[in-house]
Design brief:
about 210 residues; alpha/beta; Rossmann fold; binds adenosine-5'-diphosphate
Amino acid sequence: MYLCTLKNNIFFVLICGLKKTMKAIVLFGAPGSGKGTHSALIAQEYNFLHLSTGDILRAEVASKSDLGKLVDGYISKGALVPDELIINILAKKIDENIDANGIILDGFPRTVTQAEALDEMLERRGKKIDVMVDINVAEKTLFDRLVLRGSISGRADDTPETIKKRLAVYREQTEPVKAHYKRTNRYFSADNNGSVEQCFEQIKGLI
Ligand code: ADP
């Protein structure tokens, strides 16, 4: 009887261990820190899905839908879109890609409310964020990189005034998110003041 129960338990543990588990990573950092660049590199290296909330929102704006018009009002001012709106958009994207090998979240969560909602959303689906990688870059470098990017890409929110606003919003509303991941031992940082390759080597070491 005892042996039988033991056998069943071992079988259960084996099945759970074999069940495909999706890796989920949050790539964190100020505007211009290189989240997009490194998300693309990670996606390629590990065959993970790259979900950028900035890209998702810009596609919505480009479609000229009512939601897009609403979103544009926030993005063009350098403000964050409301939590409830972006949380619902992200939950839908996660459900559409629940069988992915792994997911990199770029640009989400950006507030403590979003971080808490993300944990709950993933827990309900039997998943979790494994690590948060915080990409660090000096403030002056961030500003210069964004101004340069604006002159090349023509992104509407890469103008000096809006960049200053976005950096201030990051310090006030987004930086506190780090503490949420530190508390739960999922916080790691990488330095992106040097080359892309140097930073990517650090990130690979963490993943
Ligand atoms: P960056 O990190 O360089 O500022 P993103 O492309 O990630 O650029 O985001 C562009 C804009 O999209 C943000 O300034 C904000 O208005 C909006 N946005 C993106 N992600 C979120 C989010 N998680 N919550 C609220 N607003 C967001």
